[in-house]
Amino acid sequence: MTHATTERLRKLAALVTGGMGGERENAEAIFERLLKESGLRREDFIGADERVSRHPVSIATAMERELLLQVIAKVTDNREATVYYTRGKLSPVKFEATEPQAAEIKFLFALYRRALKVESERLYIAFINKHALFAPSPRPSSIPAKPMDPAERARLAAMMEGMANVTPHKALENRNDR
């Protein structure tokens, strides 16, 4: 469910509650169809826009925490979003939002979390290859190399090109050894 879909559902909910005649009936039909498609409930949009409550979500890293804050800011149009922590490392964090906003935040956070994981793995592979951080000997024939998609190879090459060159400095001889 996208931000546009959520906004459309909000506008339709306003027409369902405040529209007249055929406008209201048409809005009702479209509203019900979109609710079924998105898996949301009618209560999430009719009368729920003003109710703000805390919603739990699990995060594992500081980067995921920052990602969650960015998603909350995007959905709520609020740069000052707050995430509440509970004691214990495995406890979920909580954020304040309306039900429709919370549904969108959770959906977008899960989507971007997966994308961030894929991109982080891609960055790691590009870094290893850019700096040749692997054994110079060829791979044993018992371990086959993974085939790589040409598009993936091009993405890795572009990432490697954008990275700074890091050259290790050779150790200086110890002056006390003379």
Any overview of this molecule?
Helices cover about 55% and strands about 5% of the residues. It is mainly alpha-helical and about 180 residues long. It has a domain at about 1-50. The N and C termini lie far apart (about 70 Å).
Which characteristics define this entry?
single chain, 178 residues, mainly alpha, three-stranded antiparallel beta sheet, 5 helices, elongated, DUF2786 domain-containing protein
Short structural description:
The chain has helices at 3-18, 21-38, 62-76, 99-130, 150-162, and strands at 53-57, 83-84, 93-97.
Write the layout of secondary structure elements.
Elements: H1 3-18, H2 21-38, E1 53-57, H3 62-76, E2 83-84, E3 93-97, H4 99-130, H5 150-162
Helix pairs in contact: 1-2, 3-4, 4-5
Q: What coarse outline follows from CA principal-axis ratios?
A: elongated
Q: Main sheet? A: 3 strands, antiparallel
Q: N- to C-terminal separation?
A: 71 Å
Radius of gyration: 25 Å
Protein name: DUF2786 domain-containing protein
